[in-house]
């Protein structure tokens, strides 16, 4: 097996990973930084796909308190309030950095705006008490990630493109991270990367669901790897569904997000009978209600037989004026047009779509996990968003915590040596990862993935109940056994079937953890809805759900009260400015 | 043009597996479904007919720029190229031009990014920009930003580079993707490397090598016009040269007439 040594191994090349690389090398130019990317750097992953924008307090009429309050209120008060406070405080600094250091250019107010011409424009997003979403048209991620890619290309960072993390490697005693085993997907060969610190920034696992929004290569690799290494996870039951995923039949476009701003701007959601059904679920906020409420309402309409012909609902923005829609949402108009729908003039069929995992690796304010040397940032981590993420807080999290992790790890490395790597782990992981290539017959990776999509959508999705979750856990156990018997074609270079096998193994692992956490939380909160416990229960459930493996491998589920360090659920919101 | 299902034959250029075996087209029958894209077809073929087929994609919504291929002779993003566009019974897919192939339809993009790097495509903050505590007040779509804003939004897919004959002939030509980026930077008043960049793009292998054939503009999936960007860059370069010539003459004139120096 090829081997490399590096100071900082970053697994993931989206917003969090690239920001960490830029900040770590800036803090200490002598650091040897290695960036591992499953696709092409800054082009794969979900920061690239950000449409709506980035929440930051810039306008003097806005305040950190308001943004913070929106974030924990949206998260139904199970957020880690210190992490949420960091997000709110550092988001504006990073906007300045993105523009003044890296050359991003976000949209400005015109002479007709509510602020001076040329000041950064901020648009309304659901669940926010102030218009604070910074954006570049409706395709913001391209601007951010292309500029970051250019900066990365100009710096001395080792880029391992089309490489994936297979598993973390620990020290022989198992109490520190010593690196990771990677797969060079182009050559089909394993690589041992020994590192003084590892940052996990691979993104989430929403792709396990039948209808899902994220980029296709994502498969919960970071959380699955961390879990197998004994890392503590939190709030795994919190999986967000975006209300407006495009329905385009068998096309791969199905599930891709039509951005939140369409509802923010006043778009209607209608059921198959043409009724604005949100009046039934949230009469005050209607379509501008939070993502969890809108998604669940749509799902319930569809389940009650009031959906559209293809089990969806309709988003209708035609009353906003075709010209205005075409001017404000050119990317969305074009995407719909590419599959034959005229978004500006007629209703378009949409469905809730699995979108973002709020749960993940438990980190502290320094991005540290419970495993020495292992850090996490972005969607792989947990706590910032609680039970529901606000639109515009996702890219902000990746940029803020990626940068923060880079700074912190650079300092951490001043007095950390290169740990020894456990030879047994390396042998076992290498064997398991390559086993599908040597089987001449066995399970089919794609069939398993289809089954996982159906199972999670029906039983671990928008509406859950104890019996269905427990049944899912049993089914997932059986699927896990099958996934360890997958056979793929034996050609190593760029073998997509082999990647599909590794993907589905990780997704089954994570799905099981989501089901277990969801079965534990006997209440409904944010994105987690239990039809057998349909109400929020602040008396018993202002708690976080933790998952951990004990030394013999058994799964331990525990809960702990949320530290309400800054605000209490009963506390009224700060007064919204006029 | 039809939304109905129909039978087409995909001819895909499969790369050499050993030095002895050359790249060759292989055929795969596909039954289309409504709104099926080339990417959808590749996924279907890979799963149902030949699991050794390799291609690249991430976002499948035209944002990542990693699924660019040549379909029936024209560059396009596989995810944005719908089969209803083609009337014939055959759809031919091959990798982009001017690049080494990793496998089948996945190219090694590094040579294009090497050319990109030749124009210093990364923002270099000017001293006042770097020192500014806040983002700057800049009127969008006005002044020099009139040139910048329409040229933004490139996704680095490499389609323009593949379509450009000069890129194929001249290894030192930065190519449309790089020159389009250069234009946006030399007109970004926050950037501090304008002069250096104009020099880089103005040399004998730079903007003057473009034949203005518009292949890049015709093929850009983001509807950008690198051709227009290159034309404007030429003007910027000439303008800069002229002002460099004219400035000393004006200085002498001011000294002779006693006119004040400009602020």
Distance between the termini of chain A: 63 Å
User: Gap between N and C termini of chain B, in Å?
Assistant: 63 Å
Tell me about the largest β-sheet of chain A.
7 strands, mixed
The overall average pLDDT of chain A, rounded, is 95
- Write down the overall geometry of chain B: elongated
- Poorly predicted regions of chain A are none
Specify which chain pair forms the largest interface: A-B, 64 and 66 residues
Number of strands of chain A: 18
* Total beta strand runs of chain B: 7
How many separate helices of chain B? Answer: 10
- Radius of gyration of chain A, CA atoms, in whole angstroms: 23 Å
Helix/strand-derived category of chain B reads alpha+beta
What descriptive keywords fit this protein?
heterodimer, A: 578 residues, alpha+beta, 4-stranded antiparallel β-sheet, 16 helices, 35% helix, 17% strand, B: 263 residues, 5-stranded mixed β-sheet, two-stranded antiparallel sheet, elongated
Can you give me a brief rundown of this structure?
The complex is a heterodimer of chains A (578) and B (263). Chain A has helices at 15-27, 64-74, 81-100, 140-153, 221-228, 261-264, 278-281, 291-303, 322-328, 330-338, 393-412, 423-438, 445-459, 466-483, 496-520, 538-541; strands at 2-11, 33-36, 54-55, 122-123, 133-134, 158-160, 163-170, 177-184, 189-200, 233-234, 239-246, 268-270, 313-316, 348-357, 360-361, 374-376, 543-549, 555-561.
């Amino acid at each position: 097996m090829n081997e490399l040594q590096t100071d900082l191994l970053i697994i993931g090349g989206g917003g969090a990973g690239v920001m960490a690389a830029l900040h770590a090398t800036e803090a200490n130019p002598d650091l040897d930084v290695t960036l591992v990317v499953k696709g092409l750097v800054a082009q794969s992953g979900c920061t690239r796909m950000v449409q709506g924008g980035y929440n930051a307090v810039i306008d003097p009429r806005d305040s950190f308190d308001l943004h913070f309050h929106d974030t924990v209120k949206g998260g139904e008060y199970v957020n880690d309030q210190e992490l949420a406070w960091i997000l709110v405080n550092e988001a504006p600094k990073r906007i300045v950095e993105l523009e003044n250091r890296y050359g991003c250019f976000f949209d400005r107010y015109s002479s007709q705006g509510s602020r001076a011409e040329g000041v950064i424009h901020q648009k309304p997003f659901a669940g926010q008490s102030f218009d604070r979403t910074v954006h570049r048209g409706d395709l913001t991620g391209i601007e951010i990630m292309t500029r970051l890619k250019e900066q990365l290309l100009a710096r001395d960072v080792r880029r391992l493109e089309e490489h994936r993390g297979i598993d973390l490697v620990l020290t022989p005693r198992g109490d520190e991270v010593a690196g990771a085993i990677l797969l060079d997907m182009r050559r089909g060969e394993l690589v041992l990367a020994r590192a003084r610190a590892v940052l996990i920034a691979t993104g989430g696992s929403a792709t396990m669901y039948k209808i899902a929004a994220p980029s296709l290569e994502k498969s919960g690799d970071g959380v699955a790897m961390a879990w197998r290494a004994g890392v503590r996870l939190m709030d795994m039951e919190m999986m967000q569904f975006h209300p407006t995923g495009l329905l385009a039949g068998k096309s791969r476009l199905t599930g891709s997000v039509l951005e939140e701003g369409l509802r923010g701007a006043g778009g209607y959601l209608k059921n198959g009978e043409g009724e604005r059904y949100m009046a039934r679920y949230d009469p005050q906020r209607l379509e501008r209600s939070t993502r969890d409420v809108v998604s669940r309402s749509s799902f319930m309409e569809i389940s009650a037989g009031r959906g559209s012909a293809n089990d969806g609902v309709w988003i209708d923005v035609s009353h906003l004026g075709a010209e205005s829609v075409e001017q404000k949402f050119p990317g969305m108009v074009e995407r719909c047009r590419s599959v034959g729908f005229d978004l500006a003039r007629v209703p378009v069929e949409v469905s809730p779509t699995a979108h973002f995992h709020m749960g993940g690796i438990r980190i502290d304010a320094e991005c540290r996990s419970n495993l020495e040397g292992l850090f996490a940032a972005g969607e792989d981590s947990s706590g910032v968003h609680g039970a529901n993420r606000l639109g515009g807080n996702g890219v902000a999290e990746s940029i803020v915590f990626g940068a923060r992790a880079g700074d912190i790890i650079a300092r951490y490395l001043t007095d950390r040596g290169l740990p020894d790597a456990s030879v047994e782990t390396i042998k076992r992981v290498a064997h398991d990862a390559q086993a599908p290539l040597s089987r001449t017959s066995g399970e089919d990776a794609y069939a398993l993935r289809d089954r996982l999509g159906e199972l999670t959508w029906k039983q671990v999705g928008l509406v859950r109940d104890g019996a269905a979750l427990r049944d899912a856990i049993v089914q997932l156990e059986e699927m896990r056994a099958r996934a360890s018997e997958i056979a793929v074609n034996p050609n190593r270079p760029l073998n997509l079937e082999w990647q599909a096998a590794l993907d589905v193994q990780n997704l089954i692992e994570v799905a099981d953890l989501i089901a277990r956490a969801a079965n534990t939380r006997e209440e409904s909160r944010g994105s987690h809805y239990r039809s057998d416990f349909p109400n929020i229960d602040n008396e018993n459930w202002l708690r976080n759900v933790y998952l951990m493996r004990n030394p013999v491998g058994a799964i331990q589920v525990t809960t702990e009260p949320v530290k309400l360090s800054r605000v209490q659920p009963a506390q009224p919101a700060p007064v919204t400015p006029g | 043009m039809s939304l109905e299902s129909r039978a087409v034959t995909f001819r895909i250029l499969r790369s050499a597996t050993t030095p002895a075996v050359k790249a060759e087209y292989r055929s795969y029958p596909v039954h289309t479904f409504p709104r099926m894209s080339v990417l959808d077809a590749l996924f279907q073929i890979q799963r149902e007919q030949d699991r050794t087929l390799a291609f690249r994609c991430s976002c499948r919504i035209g944002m990542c720029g990693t699924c660019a291929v040549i379909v029936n002779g024209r560059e396009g993003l596989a995810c944005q190229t719908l089969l209803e566009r083609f009337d014939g019974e055959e759809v031919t897919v091959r990798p982009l031009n001017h690049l080494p192939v990793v496998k089948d339809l996945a190219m090694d993009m590094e040579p294009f990014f090497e050319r990109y790097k030749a124009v210093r495509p990364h923002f270099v903050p000017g001293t006042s920009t770097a020192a500014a505590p806040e983002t700057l007040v800049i009127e969008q779509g006005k002044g020099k930003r009139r040139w910048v804003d329409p040229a933004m939004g490139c996704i680095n897919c490499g389609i323009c580079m593949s379509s450009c004959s000069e890129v194929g002939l001249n290894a030192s030509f930065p190519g449309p993707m790089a020159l389009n980026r250069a234009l946006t930077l030399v007109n970004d008043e926050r950037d501090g490397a304008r002069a250096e960049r104009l020099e880089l793009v103005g040399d004998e292998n730079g903007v003057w090598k473009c034949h203005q054939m518009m292949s890049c503009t015709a093929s850009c999936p983001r509807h950008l016009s690198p051709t227009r960007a290159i034309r404007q860059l030429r003007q910027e370069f000439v303008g800069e040269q002229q002002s460099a010539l004219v400035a000393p003459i004006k200085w002498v004139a001011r000294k002779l007439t006693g006119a004040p120096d400009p602020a």
